Amino acid sequence: MTRNLMIRKLGILAGLAILLGICSAARAQETAPPPSLGDVARKNREEKAKNPQSSKHTLTNDDIFTSRGVSSMGSGAVANEPSPRGQKVVAEVLKKLDVAELAFQRLDSMDRAQLGLAVLRGDGHAFPGREAWEERLYLAKNLYVSHERTLGRELRQLMSEALALEAAKVPETDPRFAALEERLKTVSAGVSREEAAFNAVIAEGRELAKQQEKPTAGGD
Fold first, then answer.
1. What is the mean pLDDT of each run of 10 residues along the chain (220 residues)?
2. Which DSSP string do the residues of the chain spell out, in sequence order?
């Protein structure tokens, strides 16, 4: 029972981190058309073909739920079958991570002009400083997506380890659960920093555009 409560707690923390991480991605794409699942799958295949080593050590959902995957996560004991509750919690986190990855893929595919239009809700008029702001936005977007994907991989690893401990019937008081919780909090803090940095650039551009809409004094 206590192990189930601990893995639920870890799942809630992970879910909050994912939700926070995709807020800026959603905010930056308010007017962008959604990608088709076929386009996303094709992009994944192309990326893997171009960079076969890039995902070599990335856990897949299937890896996490296989007995080999569960037993190889460093629990220090022979793994039993994870409890249905533990599997459900981890599956929910993985589903949220998959949704987040779709948002990041969509954001990653935008060029500078497309991104600027999406952030400014389709406003394409030129204003002083727009070109420089779009360049800052594009660079901030690339950094944000890269960092959030790294944090997403870390979340997958953390939930895999949590499931392995739960499957091995490790008690809640085991220090490894506390260590996982601390790592999750560290990931959440990293997500918050990346979110704030990207949001700041988004807000800057919207404020610049808003300033251009203000009527000049005495102008009727």
1. 73 84 79 53 62 56 59 49 86 91 92 94 93 96 94 92 88 90 92 91 95 61
2. -HHHHHHHHHHHHHHHHHHHHHHHHHHTTTTSPPPPHHHHHHHHHHHHHH-TTTTTTPPPHHHHHSHHHHHTSS-SS---PPPHHHHHHHHHHHHHHHHHHHHHHHHHT--HHHHHHHHTTT-----TTHHHHHHHHHHHHHHHHHHHHHHHHHHHHHHHHHHHHHHTT--TTSHHHHHHHHHHHHHHHHHHHHHHHHHHHHHHHHHHHHHHHSPPTT--
Q: Determine the distance from the C-alpha atom of residue 56 to the mean position of all C-alpha atoms in its chain, rounded to a whole number.
A: 19
Backbone angles phi, psi at 79, to 5 degrees: -80, 135
Residue in the structure block whose two tokens are 């952030």: 119
pLDDT for res 36: 52
Residues across the chain: 220
Cα 53–chain centre separation? 21
User: d(Cα 161, Cα 164) in Å, to the nearest integer?
Assistant: 5
What is the pLDDT, as a whole number, of residue 170? Answer: 87
What 173-179 contacts at long range (C-beta under 8 Å, 24+ apart), as own/partner pairs, is 176/75, 176/76, 177/6, 177/10
Q: Which amino acid is at 220?
A: D
